[in-house]
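A reminder from the course coordinator: this example appears on the midterm review sheet, so study it carefully.

Given structure:
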């Protein structure tokens, strides 16, 4: 079982999210999905510079290395200008209760508990998951997290997939 964090450009992000989730579903099952939040990247809070963010709980027969490859293969870095490709970033947050510290992969993802948006989404998708280092559930960690700034609820995550 894995937690995967997705962040995409808000503009066109819903359709792109559905395609990414379909790709993931080819390699396993999306067991749960958090709400989708809109995070503004500027103080002006403009939708054109906002991202949509959410976390999926993913059950897969893949190994951790295969899952990491799947996650990385779906990432796209946007390029500035008129021919801008959409930004899509996927991050493997957890894989079972593994602790991995390597140049290529650190699990659980170190910023998961530091970013209030990520920890809240992760707790929605798998609140009972016990962080193998902190020995607390994600729900417990999320309760003590700072409020997420520059972010607001966008849509229900379930609207992106058919369970």
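Designed residues:
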């Amino acid at each position: 079982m894995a937690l995967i964090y997705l962040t995409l450009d808000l503009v066109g992000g819903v359709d792109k999210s559905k395609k990414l989730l379909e790709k993931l579903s080819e390699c396993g099952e999306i067991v749960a999905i958090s709400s989708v939040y809109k995070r503004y990247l500027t103080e002006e809070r403009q939708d054109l510079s906002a991202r949509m963010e959410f976390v999926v709980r993913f059950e897969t027969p893949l190994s951790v290395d295969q899952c990491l490859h799947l996650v990385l293969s779906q990432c796209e870095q946007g390029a500035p200008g008129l021919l801008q490709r959409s930004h899509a970033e996927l991050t493997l947050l957890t894989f079972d209760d593994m602790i991995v510290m390597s140049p290529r992969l650190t699990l659980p993802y170190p910023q998961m508990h530091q970013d209030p948006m990520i920890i809240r989404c992760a707790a929605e998708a798998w609140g009972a998951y016990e962080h193998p280092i902190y020995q607390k559930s994600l729900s417990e960690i999320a309760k003590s997290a700072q409020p997420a700034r520059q972010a607001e609820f966008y849509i229900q995550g379930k609207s992106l997939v058919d369970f």
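The two ends are 17 Å apart (CA to CA). Confidence is low (pLDDT under 50) at residues 79-83.
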